[in-house]
């Protein structure tokens, strides 16, 4: 790498660190539960995981996962429309449809992917969507992909939300 470019990158990183914006991975040496052990030995309360119900480390879930790995392997190796859909996925989708009383269900590998396909499916050019400026990146990307007219309001600003709602109703 050329010294001038390297120096530029180092200065940019120094500025990011100085401004408190530099992100470092938090090393965890335990399962994701309500309390986690950090690599430095401290135990802390975990307030940022999506494991709301505590199922990530539940023994029955772990046993079912081991059984599924033995039978089905680890992952599909690609998206279902390229490599195919395993019968276990169709079975789960069918059971979910029955549980929710819906005609059909489709599973996505992540919420990010689901949000990427949700808005385009539900909204057309005649629709409007009003979105918080600080929504998750997957919601923002999903909204960008749809044909609806988009209105974004400032986070936690009810006056701006009201203005966007009025703007949308007049469109």
Question: What are the salient characteristics of this protein?
Answer:
about 170 residues; two-stranded antiparallel ribbon; 4 strands; mainly alpha; two-stranded parallel ribbon
Task: Give the SSE layout.
Blueprint: H1 3-18, E1 35-37, E2 43-45, H2 59-72, H3 80-83, H4 87-100, H5 111-122, E3 128-132, H6 137-145, E4 149-153, H7 158-170
Parallel strand pairs: 3-4
Antiparallel strand pairs: 1-2
Helix pairs in contact: 5-6
In short, what is this structure?
The protein is mainly α and 171 residues long.
* Distinct helical segment count: 7
Q: Helices and strands, in N-to-C order? A: HEEHHHHEHEH
Percent of residues in beta strands? 5-15%
The strand order across the widest sheet is 1-2
Amino- and carboxy-terminal Cα gap: 52 Å
User: Can you tell me the residue ranges where pLDDT is under 50 for at least 5 consecutive residues?
Assistant: none
Helix content: 40-55%
Largest sheet: 2 strands, antiparallel
- Which radius of gyration do the C-alpha atoms yield? 22 Å
- Choose one word for the global shape: extended
What structural category do the secondary elements indicate? mainly alpha
Describe this structure as you would to a colleague.
It is a single chain. With 171 residues, the protein is mainly alpha-helical. It has a domain at 1-47. It has 7 helices and 4 strands. Helix 5 (111-122) runs parallel beside helix 6.
């Amino acid at each position: 790498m050329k010294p001038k470019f390297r120096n530029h990158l180092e200065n940019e990183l120094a500025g990011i660190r100085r401004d408190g914006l530099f992100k470092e991975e938090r090393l965890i040496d335990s399962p994701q539960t309500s309390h986690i052990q950090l690599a430095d030995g401290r135990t802390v309360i975990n307030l940022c995981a999506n494991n709301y119900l505590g199922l990530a480390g539940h023994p029955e879930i772990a046993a079912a996962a081991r059984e599924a790995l033995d039978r089905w392997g680890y992952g599909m190796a690609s998206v279902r429309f390229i490599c195919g859909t395993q019968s276990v996925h169709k079975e789960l989708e069918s059971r979910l449809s029955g549980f929710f009383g819906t005609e059909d269900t489709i599973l996505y590998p992540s919420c990010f992917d689901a949000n990427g396909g949700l808005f385009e499916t539900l909204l057309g050019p005649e629709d409007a969507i009003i979105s918080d400026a600080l929504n998750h990146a997957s919601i923002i990307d999903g909204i960008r992909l749809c044909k609806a007219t988009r209105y974004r309001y400032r986070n936690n600003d009810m006056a701006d939300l009201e203005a966007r709602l009025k703007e949308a109703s007049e469109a």
